[in-house]
Amino acid sequence: MISSSDGTPRPRRPISCAPLADLIARNRADLDNGLDALLENWDPSRVGQVERAICRLAMAELRYSLDVPVNVVLNEACELARLYGDEGTVKFINGLMDRAARIARPAEPKEPGETDPS
Questions:
Q1: What is the domain range of residue 52?
Q2: pLDDT tens-digit series, residues 48-97
């Protein structure tokens, strides 16, 4: 419950993740191929299911939800990695999704105020 401006409790509005889940399901093979292409010197079968799910989510937002800023996608992916993995998971996800963002949205800055050095 959250409080309204007058202090009375009101229920939170549920956030629907169904459209994003549907997007991932429809594009799963493409997302997995994109993830596998990002893995340098790494056997794709070694990527855990949790890590792969986080990457699919972030890559789907990067590729198909252009209204979501890159920095938001990267932050959300790292927060999920922190919640469901360890520090190694966070570094792994951050590195991969940083590369994915530079490929999927090369003209968009990663952080607000960042400019393209070229």
A1: 17-104
A2: 999 999 999 999 999 999 999 999 999 999 999 999 998 899 999 999 99
Q: Is residue 20 within 8 Å of 61, Cβ to Cβ?
A: yes
- The pTM (predicted TM-score) of the whole model is 0.79
In a domain, 116, yes or no: no
Q: DSSP character for 85?
A: S
At position 20, the amino acid (one-letter code) is: L
Which CATH number fits the domain that encloses residue 45? Answer: 1.10.940.10
